[in-house]
Structures are given as structure tokens and as C-alpha cells.
Predict the structure.
Amino acid sequence: MAKIIVVTSGKGGVGKTTSTAAIGAGLAMRGKKTVVIDFDVGLRNLDMIMGCERRVVFDFINVIQGDAKIKQALITDRRLENLSILPTSQTRDKDALTKEGVEKVLNELREQFDYIICDSPAGIERGAHLAMYYADEAVVVTNPEVSSVRDSDRVLGLLSAKTNRAEKGEGEVKSHLLLTRYDPARVARGEMMKVDDILEILSIPLLGIIPESTAVLKASNVGTPVTFDTKSNAGKAYEDAVSRLIGEQLEMKIQPERQGLFQRLLRRTA
Amino acid sequence: MSMLNFFRRPRNLTSADSAKERLQILLSHERTDRSSPEYLPMLQRDILEVIQRYMRVGDEGVDIKLERGEELSTLEINIELPGKSGAEARGAA
Ligand SMILES: Nc1ncnc2c1ncn2[C@@H]1O[C@H](COP(=O)(O)OP(=O)(O)OP(=O)(O)O)[C@@H](O)[C@H]1O
Ligand SMILES: [Mg+2]
């Protein structure tokens, strides 16, 4: 019986899709049978980040509307066979998502997987609402920046009131903070909020700190979840976050950027 | 062709080159798909209908796989045929 985890944020462009792909890949690397689902109807992107965009035949909406079976819409990752992708439609809009349809698909997937990771669209409208509605846990992706923190707070409110668990009195959706695009140098200069400041404001447990990293763009260029880049700082940080997600206790550290030979030499002479 | 281009081997593709290539292939398909109806569900239904005229195949028995390429896309259709007991032609039953 799978655990359903929504990756959400309110604010757009903070790293939800990047994190969905990275966490999904990380769980699969740990041997968990994992499916990542794109809830951003009309703006399909998870397929590109996962690198399977050329293989999309049927999508989430086709399954909801009965035009295809789940088995036919799921794409198996070429690198890890226990990782699957359920892409969304590029041509429909969010109204094609229905609560009943989403529930039916999730119930069927629950039987086959250990983890179901839902990539929420930005905002708090229908798509975002349905992405979080059936979640058991939430990863709230936040950048160290005022509007992102504020939107995360709003989303935490919705998670504790407007979800199936909340409405049925089945206990809270367990929410974790994933701080992304964190730049230690700017924090040191006092230009960016510190981890502790954000934790104090949002007061939810910290799942991980993903540094601002050049590896993320590189990974998206080639369609590889950044977790597969095991040498990169972002890849390592996501790996740590995944370990915590499956319940391991791990010391929280900020992964340093791996320096090239040139930078190391510069440093030595400086 | 400049010398630079001549020496540029596909092996030296940077990640940015690969981003451009992936986008070009994907978008050329998406732009043409947008103007035509979604044919894959219909294609699947029709295939199933034809097969079912001759054999007992379940609704899940047809699996369509697609790989969009630059010059060539491949469509792979797998049909799960039933075992011995279900294999007799319907007309004969
Ligand atoms: N740790 C990081 N370091 C550097 N760049 C990052 C990092 N995380 C995400 N990005 C970049 O930020 C941009 C937005 O990321 P992404 O698409 O994952 O956000 P999103 O929250 O899914 O956006 P949307 O709300 O539009 O769905 C991308 O260009 C991505 O490469
Ligand atoms: Mg996204």
C-alpha cells in the first residue's frame, strides 16, 4: 500500500518539478517502487525533467476519462525499472481533473507502488488542490525569499484544512519543509534568510536543504533527475532528503559545491 | 562549413546542445499534434475492435508504445493474445 506524497509550494518556479523528479529517482535508487505523477495539466514538464518526453502515449487525463488504462499510460524509466512516470495532458486544462477521477487513479496505483509522488502545479486553484487532496504527506518546497515563505505558510493552512485527511478527521497530512535554491554565501553575507529563521516562521520539520546548484540546470538539459548525478551537491542533498523521508535520522548539512581544479588552485594561492 | 564545425563531433555534445535537440524534436511533434485531434485513443479502440472480431482479447490487451524521433518515430503495438483456452476463433464458437 503506497504512501502518497504531494510536492507543493503555492508560489511558482521554486523547484517543485525538479524536486519531484529528484525525490522520485532517489526513492527508486533506494529500491522503492515509485511513481511520479504530473498534476500540472496543460503545462506538462515532468516528462522533460525525467527525460521520457518522446515516449508519452497516453496521459493522466486519458486514464481519468476512460480512454486508456493506467498500465498503458505509465512510462517505465529506462534507467531504473522500479521508477514510473504518469505524464499529464499538454492539450487539456485543469477542469479535466475531477476528484473522483484522481481518487480512482490513486487507489489503483496504491496497490502497485510503495510511493506515489504528486507534482503540484503552482497556485492554490483546482490543480494544486487536487494534487494535495489525497496526500498522506507533503513536501513543501520553499525558497529563502519572502514571497515563497509566505505562500508556503498559506499552503500549510490548506494542507491542514482542505484535504481528504482533514475533512475525514483521519489525522494531519504530515508536512516537511524542503528548502531549495539555498545559497550559503549569500546567507553568510546576510543577503538571504537563514535556515533557522525560516524554520522559526513556518515551524514544520526540515526535510532537507538543497543548495543553489549548476547541476540542476545541467540535469534538466539532458533529462536526468539530479539525484542520478551522485557527485553533485544538489544530488547529494536530495539523496539525504530522501533518506529522511523514509525515516532515517541524518545530520543536517549544507552540501558544498564541488570545486573544479581551477577553483581549488585559486583558493590555494589566495 | 567552418573548421570548427568540421571537428565538432556529436560525442562532444554539451548538455545545452542536448537541451536544444530534445526541445526541437519534442516541439516539432507538439506543434503538429495540436492541430490534429488526439488520435491515439481512437487508434487503440479501433485496433482492439478489429482484433476482438477474431479473438478474445481483454480491453487491456492492447499496449501502444511510441518513440518520437527526429526523422523517424516508431509506433510499437503489442497485443496480448489469450492462452489456449481463449484462442478459438469467435466465429467457430
Ligand atoms: N537547487 C537549484 N539550483 C539551481 N536552480 C534550480 C534549483 N532548483 C530549481 N532550479 C531551477 O528553477 C527553475 C524552476 O524549477 P522547477 O520547474 O522545478 O519549479 P516548479 O516549482 O516546478 O515551477 P512551476 O511552479 O512553474 O511548476 C528551473 O529553471 C530549475 O532549473
Ligand atoms: Mg512544475
Chain A touches chain B at residues 48, 53-58, 62, 67-69, 71-72, 90-91, 217-218, 220-223 (CB under 8 Å).
